[in-house]
């Protein structure tokens, strides 16, 4: 009995010792986790407000440096709210600008600073759904639902003149732009798609994208990145659903893509050329250029916008 008692006491001591160690680990881990969370939260809010989450007055000031008439409104579609800037003259060609992930209205500034953009164009620039002031960081991974909302906004704004417009999308904004174009030929005369991902087989997903979907990391990351990551993980399924209409497109598409794009491989263009009549497509390849063309080479985007859109001919449009 003494031996059994000793064994039981030893086991209990070991159990209590392990419980003590585990308790300390939990306490210190909790302290570390919450301290880190506070730091991350403070950083992300500071960064968001400092760089992107600008007041309407600040946005108006930014865009008024180059344009005389700047208006900021919200538009309701279904349960979603879309916050947008309208830089305009009603006589000018309307251009719908759709940003990528996780950017914002303010990221269009480099393009709109270019002098050739200051006359002849009316720019309609929404925060995409889920970003900043458009439905406040609620993820919407369905490309077609995005497109329906922006098409409704665009139709409302151009209704007084019914002047056909242009849609320009960068990165994740491009499949949305193309969906707007495909399903609304009465609104869009042509499109420009920049650094685009269309081939589900070429989609690049980094392992960290799966990791941060788990709690508590999911709620620790910067909210726009969280929305961007949700879109990223659903992108392949959403592309397969929305791009079945590719072979029906009969209005011109201008592709601007860097040959050294790591995030969205240049090989995506061949998928596009296999699924769309060649006369529709005009390809602008930028040698040695990477993904963030809106910052690194906005002039190339401006040049694509000011050129004549493609005309039907044999082979690839020139």
Brief sketch in words of this structure:
This protein is of the alpha/beta class and 318 residues long.
Question: What does it look like?
Answer:
By secondary structure, the chain is an alpha/beta fold. It folds into two domains: 1-52; 55-306, Alpha/Beta hydrolase fold, catalytic domain (Rossmann fold, 3-Layer(aba) Sandwich), CATH 3.40.50.1820. The chain is 44% helix and 17% strand. The longest helix is centred in the first third of the chain and has 51 residues, at 2-52. The chain is elongated.
What count of helical segments does DSSP give? 11
Question: In CATH terms, what is the fold-level topology of the largest domain?
Answer: Rossmann fold
C-alpha geometry: elongated
Helix proportion: 40-55%
Question: What keywords describe this structure?
Answer:
eight-stranded mixed beta sheet; 44% helix; elongated
List the helices and strands and how they pair.
Layout lengths: L1 H51 L3 H9 L5 E8 L2 E8 L5 E6 L10 H4 L8 E6 L16 H16 L6 E6 L2 H11 L4 E7 L12 H5 L5 H4 L2 H20 L10 E6 L9 H8 L5 E6 L6 H4 L1 H9 L12
Parallel strand pairs: 3-4, 3-5, 5-6, 6-7, 7-8
Antiparallel strand pairs: 1-2, 2-4
Helix pairs in contact: 4-5
């Amino acid at each position: 009995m003494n031996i059994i008692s000793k064994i039981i006491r030893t086991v209990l001591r070991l159990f209590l010792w392990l419980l003590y160690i585990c308790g300390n680990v939990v306490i210190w881990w909790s302290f570390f986790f919450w301290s880190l969370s506070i730091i991350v939260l403070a950083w992300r809010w500071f960064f968001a407000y400092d760089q992107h989450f600008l007041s309407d007055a600040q946005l108006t000031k930014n865009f008024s440096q180059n344009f005389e008439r700047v208006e900021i409104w919200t538009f309701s579609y279904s349960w979603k709210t879309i916050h947008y800037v309208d830089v305009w003259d009603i006589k000018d060609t309307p251009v719908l600008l759709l940003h990528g992930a996780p950017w914002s209205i303010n990221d269009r500034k480099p393009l709109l600073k270019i002098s050739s953009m200051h006359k002849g164009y009316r720019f309609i620039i929404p925060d995409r759904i889920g970003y900043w002031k458009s439905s406040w960081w609620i993820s919407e991974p369905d490309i077609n639902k995005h497109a329906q909302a922006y098409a409704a906004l665009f139709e409302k704004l151009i209704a007084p003149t019914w002047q056909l417009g242009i849609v320009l999308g960068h990165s994740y904004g491009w499949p949305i732009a193309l969906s707007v174009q495909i399903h609304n030929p009465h609104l869009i005369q042509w499109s420009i798609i920049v650094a685009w991902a269309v081939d589900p087989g070429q989609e690049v997903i980094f392992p960290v994208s799966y990791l941060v979907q788990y709690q508590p990391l999911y709620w620790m990351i910067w909210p726009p990145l969280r929305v961007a990551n949700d879109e990223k993980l659903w992108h392949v399924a959403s592309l397969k659903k929305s791009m079945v209409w590719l072979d029906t497109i009969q209005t011109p598409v201008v592709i601007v893509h860097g040959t050294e794009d790591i995030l969205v491989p240049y090989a995506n263009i061949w998928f596009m050329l296999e699924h769309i009549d060649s006369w529709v497509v005009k390809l602008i390849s930028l040698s040695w250029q990477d993904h963030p063309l809106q910052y690194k080479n906005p002039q190339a985007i401006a040049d694509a916008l000011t050129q004549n859109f493609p005309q039907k001919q044999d082979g690839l449009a020139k």
